[in-house]
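Before the break, one more example. Copy the sequence into your notebook; we will annotate it together after we see the structure.
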Amino acid sequence: MARLPRLTVAGYPHHVIQRGNNRQAIVKSDADREVLLELLSENAKKHRVAINAYVLMDNHFHLLLTPETGEGVPLMMQAVGRRYVRYFNDLYQRTGTLWEGRYKSTLIQTDRYLLACMVYLDLNPVRAGMVGDPRQYAWSSHRHFIGQALDRRVTPHPLYWSLGNTPFAREAAYTELVRAGLTMGEQKAITQSTLHGWALGDADFVDELQKRTPRRITKSRAGRPAVTPAEHA
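Here is what the structure looks like once it is written out:
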């Protein structure tokens, strides 16, 4: 089956995943993590993309991005990918690709899935068995949203601001969302949509979005079902 072109639409949040080739590490030190985060921040600003949330894992990273233009996310990811590979290869005296092909991306319905996607990112280190609590993981935006750190790279989405009228109220409400976690249905929907490039939202949202693009944005009913890799998303 031919892979679908990525769908990017200005003003909508997008969940993005970039993996290391053959599941290899994309960072080997905290210095690498800082370089990668700085490249993401620099190029997000350059291409007018808001980083609403993120998590860096050892062999992949997740981003929640809202672009001002349809070209913002592709330009940002292309620039980061090239510059970070050059940095990584020079530092570790290696050659060749670092990434597992193209980054994966899905467009999300804001009111239904944005906060769930933030929780999904925050809990990724917990699902991977790296920490018991997302507050223990330094390389995500979680601490920013619960008031334990100030992360200048993050631009909170307006939906996060709607959680409360004061910083304390927002932080408490978001802490409770993360504590409650996700249902298996929510977790599966977020994983599947991003791995396959399907839009994530209810039927009305998907139908309305489909009118704006000739590109198929939901699972095809024809052919054999795709096989999802058995790994942490």
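The longest helix spans residues 72-92. The radius of gyration is 17 Å. Try to locate both features in your own notes.
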